[in-house]
Amino acid sequence: MMKPMKWLAAGVLGAAAMGAQAQVNQIKVWAAACANCHGTDGRAEPGAISLAGQSKDDLLQKLLDFKAGKRPATIMHQLAKGYSDEQLADIAGYFAAQKK
Fold first, then answer.
1. What does residue 85 show for φ and ψ, rounded to 5 degrees?
2. Which backbone phi and psi does 97 adopt, to 5 degrees?
3. Residues 42-51: pLDDT tens digits?
4. Do residues 34 and 91 make contact, with C-beta atoms less than 8 angstroms apart?
5. DSSP state of 81
6. DSSP 26-76
7. pTM listed for this prediction
8. Which domains does the chain have, with CATH numbers?
9. Do residues 62 and 70 touch, judged by C-beta distance below 8 A?
10. Of 94, 93, 99, which is closest to residue 56 (Cα–Cα)?
């Protein structure tokens, strides 16, 4: 039988794991908005720019440049403004982790 402190510790660890999973799922939701132009999980069809496997730092810098209006775009500058810098970093990390 578990002692009360062990139950508490197990509950805290379980809640932390669920919170981490929810964060990963939220990042996937944000990244899914990119699929129309950049393909599922960032693997674009020929003629479009693939994001999968690119450097996180490079992707983040491009996103921040779009957001700041420093990089020419048709729609990316508008889309990037809808995310915080931290969300953009999470999105860049998600695509960097995808296989090409």
1. -60, -35
2. -80, -10
3. 999 999 999 9
4. yes
5. T
6. HHHHHHHTTHHHH-GGG-PPTTS---TT--HHHHHHHHHHHHHT-S--SSH
7. 0.76
8. 21-97 (1.10.760.10)
9. no
10. 93
Report the distance separating Cα 34 and Cα 12, nearest Å. 34
Averaged in consecutive runs of 10 residues, what is the pLDDT profile of the chain (100 residues)? 57 57 83 94 94 98 98 95 97 96
Residue 54's pLDDT is 97
35 vs 16, 32, 62, CA distance in Å?
29, 5, 17
What does the longest C-alpha to C-alpha distance in the chain come to? Answer: 63
